[in-house]
Amino acid sequence: MKPVIEILTDDFLDLEDFQAERALQHAALDAMDRAKRCGTGFVVSENDHVRVLKPDETGEYRQRGLQNLERLNRKIAELQNLSPVVLALNDGPAQK
Question: pLDDT tens digits for 5-44?
């Protein structure tokens, strides 16, 4: 049985989702740095195949990670600048 994967767009995610994704991106970049510093491999999954990269093979992945981190920081800043009313949930009863 193959899992069904649904691609979500940025308009579906909220501020906390972007912050969680940013934390994961920071963790991945930190793991790449530690792998390089310690001379160990870094594991990635591409096209349903797992690869172990040597420390000097992480450059492309690190670059993509930094670009994604910039995108996430821009999106988080954009959402933080929105009015609190826009971000508030409508938890109260409907007004008559």
Answer: 777 676 667 888 899 999 999 999 999 999 999 999 999 9
Nearest partner of 23 among 61, 64, 76, judged by Cα:
76
Residues recorded for the chain: 96
Amino acid 41: pLDDT: 93
Instruction: Supply the DSSP string of 39-65, one letter for each residue.
Output: T--EEEEETTEEEEE-GGG-HHHHHHH
Q: Tell me the Cα Rg of the chain.
A: 18
Q: What is the number of other CB atoms lying within 10 angstroms of the CB of residue 5?
A: 6
CB atoms closer than 10 angstroms to residue 84: 6
